[in-house]
């Protein structure tokens, strides 16, 4: 009887341990759209990056043909920012909601 009782406790503890490990690895996603501030057209291929407090890149993706992106985020202290050649980069924003849309404006840098 003692072996049966010990075995049951062992199985119960294993189940509890496995369930806590899977819940600790919960990943949320942030998604949205990047558009031109002036003409409201989607920006194809813009870099959307997740950065830490020191602006080190953790993860990044490029927007699709419709300007959409989706990124997994597993740390609430990370921030999100957008950059694209010929446009002003955004300041890092807190990831406080599941959908974050960006409107970026042209840098208006012209060569002489």
Order of helices and strands: HEEEEEEE
Query: Strand-residue fraction?
Result: 25-35%
Q: N-to-C terminal Cα separation, in Å?
A: 89 Å
For the biggest β-sheet, the strand order reads 3-2-5-6
Characterization of the model:
The protein has 112 residues and is α+β, with helices and mostly antiparallel strands. The chain has a domain at 28-104: Immunoglobulin-like, CATH 2.60.40.10. The protein is 21% helix and 32% strand. The chain contains one helix and seven strands, in the order αβββββββ. The longest helix is centred in the first third of the chain and has 23 residues, at 2-24. The relative contact order is 0.22.
Briefly summarize what is shown.
With 112 residues, this protein is an alpha+beta fold.
